[in-house]
Specification:
Chain lengths: 587, 522
Amino acid sequence: MGAHAHAHHHKESFITKYIFSQDHKMIAKQFLFTAIIMGVVGMFLSLLFRIQLGWPGPNMLNSIFLGDWAPDGVMNSNMYLGLVTIHGTIMVFFVLTGGLSGTFSNLLIPLQLGARDMASGFLNMFSYWFFCLSSVIMLVSLFVESGPAMAGWTVYPPISVLEESVPGSGLGMTLWLVSMAIFIASSLLGSLNYIVTILNLRTKGMKMTRMPLTIWAFFVTAILGVLSFPVLLSAAVLLIMDRSFGTSFYISDIFIDGHALDQTGGSPILFQHLFWFLGHPEVYIVLLPALGITSEIIATNSRKPIFGYRAMIGSILAIGFLSFIVWGHHMFITGMNPFLGGVFVFTTLLIAIPSAVKVFNYITTIWKGNIVFTPAMMFSIGLVSTFITGGVTGIILADSALDIDVHDTYFVVGHFHIVMGLSAIFGMFAGLYHWFPKLYGRMMNRKMGYVHFWVTIVCGYGVFFPMHFTGLAGAPRRYYDYSEFPFLDHVVDLNVVISVFAVIGTLAQVIFLFNFFYSAIRGAKAIENPWKSNTLEWTTPVEHVHGNWVGEIPEVHRWPYDYSKPGKEEDFCPQNIPLEEGEEEHG
Amino acid sequence: MGKVLLIVVLVLLVLAVAQMMRVYELSSKVRGRKEPTITRRENNMNAVLMLVFCIAFFGFVIWQMVAYGMGGKGPSVSIHGEATDWLIGLNFGIIIPVFFLCNALLFYFAFKFAYKKDRDVYYFTHNNKLEMMWTVAPAIVLAIIIVLGLRTWNDITDMSGDYVVHEHTGLVVNDGQVESNFEFKAAYQTVEEAGVGLSNLSGSSKLVLVEKGGEWVLQTYEMDGESALIITEQKKFNSRNSALLSLVDEEVSMFTELKEQKHIEIYSKQFDWTTRYAGKDNALGDANFKLIDYNSWGDTNTFLNPLGLISSETIELHFNRIDARVSYLNEFLGSAEAAFETDEKLAEMTEEMERLKRKKMRVQSTIANDMGLNAMNQSEVNSRVYDDVILKGDIHLVVGQPYQFQFKSQDVIHSAYFPHFRAQMNCVPGMATQIKFTPTMTTKEFREHPDVIAKYEAINKAREKVGKPLVEASFLLLCNKICGLSHSNMWVNVIVETQEEYEAWMADQKTFEQQLQASNLK
């Protein structure tokens, strides 16, 4: 790669430019576009079940969108489980894994490292098309007559194996598994590409210790993906075998629908071990890119170097490593040996240390800075706030003795939605507002961005914070209706509060969608470096060129966080500016 | 009607968006179509909003803490639940200040350091001392959390204490029933260990009340030198209450009670719970899922074996049913009627017949090999199961009685969640999971607890307003693992009562043996 001549002599047809493109910037946009569609669907599903929880009974939305699944407008409780399942799957995998990593790793890795493109453009194209195919299959499963998968996004067997147990475990579950298998292939192709690109295609002077923290986050994320997704794939394959070929990896001693099944000797808990071996690193696959994006944006807009650059890298590595040895904390009450449970308590609580370091470093970065409130910066501050709020409740859940009490209640739902549904999504929004000029050559409307941020953070906390209290009152998750339980009566009004915020919060996203599409087509033209940022992507031309830089790739001479360096005229100093005589590299 | 309305709304929405775009476009034309850089006013407004948001957010959080509190479930009603509640209180005591402090700093700094043209930005890249400090400080706090957490976890999950000691103080007679306060003292694995422990217990009382085969015995334990334990048996009573009454008569106010852990099984299936009490021998009989019998072949004999319990009768019944079905199928296939059926149906019936024959063989070998059932121990296996009591519906427990629960599932994973007892365990098909807990409050006492009274007064007031029936507090067992259509409706009441109430209730229930006899199987 990298021959200068490569840069702009291609004459591309519509198909090679927009559809089967091998250019990382176009692939990033394709990932983003698909993820937005999936995000809209995922959020709409949550709106349907939030309305059911807030105001149970018949309603118009049900009769229009659920058809036979909502006789007289009352949602069928199987369908409720289907909506919850697909909402979770779409949000975790298709929006926050495919969407977040797919968009920003693809866009930023070559641009911030000074590479002409990804190591393998061809694999990269395949990665997107596998993602697209799996998204389509997942959406199609919503329209199957027997309903989509209804076993929860964790698809624990035996409910996901036995078609007799719930209608969604028929064709719906088959499609779910096929979709996920293809999704995993996409994720692996992408991750391998990211790792190879980061290790091999850095421009001259771009030492690992001069890489922006975004790249470090994407790097560790890709490693986590490569090591953990294959385990989910094998879990899914074994599940397919149990469902279709009569094996018994996961099932044993089952009597259902009037007869005893022949399969014996398997263990449902085996699946949980395999699933969570991916499932917990997955949490950080979702979160680390968001944290990386935030590190970059907070430093840029505070006009101040990120505090403790090396500690930030260290904590990303520590979180990445620890995430592999904590999966058992999802399984404290499965009958697992209590000693093993104790080990997982220990490893899990250790993660709080690097996480705390990151939070303190963010706060110190802002301290004595000079903050420019771009929408991206505001979403980044929102991310730090939600990361604190969601992080501290994790300490309760990691403590096995307390987990017995709050496991699978709304306390858990509140906790992981604040860290994944708010923090990670805020990271994604922050990234979009910040790199929009790089994606589309235009600026997003700032005022709409402000409105979007304020309504979203208010509604986000309004939806997920009260869930801690319904959980502490003993409300189990994935319940279709709580009115049967007088002991929860005193928190039922919170369910209405949550649903009201959910409806308003959903409407606020319409502002974002409008802003996004409108600005992409007719927004104000961007300049080369609108945020006065230091990283290399802002040295590329506004109009996309194949190969990223028209001339030579810039050489890197310094770390990416020289903001407001004493002795400089400007409050920023891009990485490609050589050190002056006598200038030291870090403060 | 609804659809028309929705279409109208959608059309209006599209129109509104189109208008918005026009207005925006015209106004940006006036401004010259360039996205202006952030104005000072905008930046300052957002800075102030950061602070306003922080205060509003804190207000929202505090309102919820005051209005809903951390103890939404009411007081804990199990021994370990008190430890759980204490630990969760400690954890909240640590994380709530961290939450407020970090969020406050974040939003305050965001407000304070909003852009000013001439601000002197501090070029602060790192500080090893500071970073070391905030690595070590969380590590120390977490070490405390881990140590205390693991201690509680080990106590809760330790299944070895089969015999539990309570120390009673202050006996009160009320309507001929004795009520007493007790405190959990210790747990032992065997009666002998308990005896040694009891004799070493300091304090005034070495008087011990023990239940033995349906009788209550008052005894004293003493150590003779280092090793030998002298147990002096004093008096026998045929109910706990009469034993307690005799103590009241003798003006004994302090004594120790040794309680053996009672075994109980909670059996789950879509979508209900079945409880199996271990009976007099305090041992649960064996079961095998292949013997589960819902009488699905229309057999006229009405006996059902929903848990697949093993006894000579259930095995025989099962084989008889298979034989009857096989001979029916065999007869049908050989008869003239068979000609009227489709080939597919006939093939299906042949296959069913073959399957049943195979199944019978397998059940025979499973039960002989896996369960170790043979002519030698047949009576032992039978006697374990005969006294079990199997009941659907409300679960009855005795206050102060330690229980060891065994959980099983027939179809998918369920989770037995007892919110008031702070207990939960998954029910996994193919394996038996366990927990133990000791209820500390009867349902009646719970209803009289001031917190509970206050909570239910408020609940009933609200129910009255909307015309819903009034309710009383009760303990529940809920399903807490996604299990299908009626997941949210899979629950039963748990009734905690005194020993006497429990015995009166239990006297009316049929044992497994009595059920067999009632169906003329034994």
